[in-house]
Amino acid sequence: MKKSTLNINHFGSAITSLMIALLFFSACRPSHKEEVDRLNNLSYAYHYRNLDSAKVYAEKALRLSDDYGIGYAEAYNNLAFVEMAKMNYQAAQKWLDLVEEKSNNQLELLIADVQHMRICQRESHNKDFYTYRERAMARLRRLNEEAANLPARERRRAIYAQSEFDIVDATYFYYVGLDEPMMKALNDIDADALENDTAQYLNYLYNFGSGGAITKGTAQQIAQTEFDYLVQCYMLASTGSGYPYWQANALQAISEHLQRPAIRDFLIKNNLPAIQYLNSEQMPDSLLAGNLAQRALNIFLSYGDVYQIAGAYRTLAECYFAIKDYNMAGNCLIKALETNKDAIAKMLEILDEKGVGEKGVQYKMKDWAFNRQRYWGEPIPIVHCPKCGIVPVPYDELPLELPPVDNFQPGSDGESPLAKIDSFVQCKCPKCGGATATLRTMKDSLLRKHLNTGCLLTGTTAVWNTLHVTLSTHVSGTSSFTTSAR
After folding, report:
1. pTM (2 decimals)?
2. End-to-end C-alpha distance for the chain, whole angstroms
3. Which residue among 15, 165, 242, 276 has its CA within the 20 to 30 Å range from the CA of 286?
4. Torsions phi, psi of 390, nearest 5?
5. How many CB atoms within 10 Å of residue 402?
6. Using CA atoms, how far apart are residues 201 and 189, in angstroms rounded to an integer?
7. If you ran DSSP here, which 8-state letter would residue 193 be given?
8. Distant-in-sequence, close-in-space partners of 15: CB < 8 Å, separation ≥ 6
9. What does the pLDDT look like over 428-478, one tens digit per residue?
10. 3-class SS letters over 227-259
11. For 356-396, what is each residue's pLDDT tens digit?
12. What is the CA radius of gyration of the chain?
């Protein structure tokens, strides 16, 4: 009987110890670790698919990460990625600063440093770029020493961090014109290690195909190699649920390759199946580059990456310029600047910091502005009224917009096309309302005799404002690079 009692006592002690141990380890283990990891995985998976989804999943992970430091650090990095894509760099910096403030996890700190490098590259903060680069390299060395001991999930995260560091490094050196370190950074990428990270592998393919990484061979051989990388990037990004960000980047880069007639003819001739696959709207060869650029822009607009939208407008402007549609080229450039609202202000700030320039407005009076408009005749916004004399057109009616013209031939007396359009020349006086007033379209020779009058300054403003309105309002209508059926 004693023996049985002793065994029961030992058994009870063992159960008690086990329960204490379970309570201890459960207290040490984050309460929502698996769920937070799952949400952060989803956020990362949507980085190049849907920015809104990436943000939503990161915010959900953050709300559950109070007792899980690595989890909230990863969520901060995911949120910083989204803000960076939208060019909200201050918001991105805020999230990245929180990684450093609230976490000592070297892996997430490394990823934060790499994202800081990306911001510095985009904002031309060269000194800060090298500061974050040195910090990232030091963390990389420490992580590589412990790589074999990392859990599977952290190993995957480390592979992402290493490849992202190399790509950001290469991008920076490309833009500052340092080819040798750029090539070293790209060649440091282990493509085989990216087998389970499709997004980073697409990043790798794009960076090798977009230009500058391939240097050996003739111009045609280099173009062919780059084209192969880009087509592979586009096709892989188009499979399954897809990666629209990389689809658009590949299309835009292929568009830039096809803008050079000699290279375009060579690539089309030697890659007919791939070209037919890309040319889903059956555009003629001369318009294919513009069509791809337009499709890339449409994808970027849907995805929401402000930085890439501005770049896509620039590429589309080059395509319009190539087919001599200068109005649409100018409109695209205006759109690029409007999209990236901080670009001009940032350039002025940098010039001011360096002491080589400052913000200002210059007013110039030069007759050459009129000389270049002499064929049309200068639309001087001065009304000649028999009763009131010379009356300026009200400011709120400026700039004058040129009327439609059917016949551009000058008159037998040398008068400009504008002078023959009565509906434009004959107008009401702004002062008395009389209907016999005249809006002059001076000849260049006559204008030169009146350089000492106020007409020149007002007229010059009208001419250039009219040109700006023409560019700014040429937005509606079907683009030259899309088929009417679509």
Report:
1. 0.67
2. 92
3. 242
4. -85, 120
5. 18
6. 10
7. G
8. none
9. 888 888 766 666 554 443 333 333 333 323 333 333 233 333 333 333 333
10. HHHHHHHHHHHCCCCCCHHHHHHHHHHHHHHHC
11. 566 666 655 544 444 444 455 556 778 888 888 888 888 88
12. 32
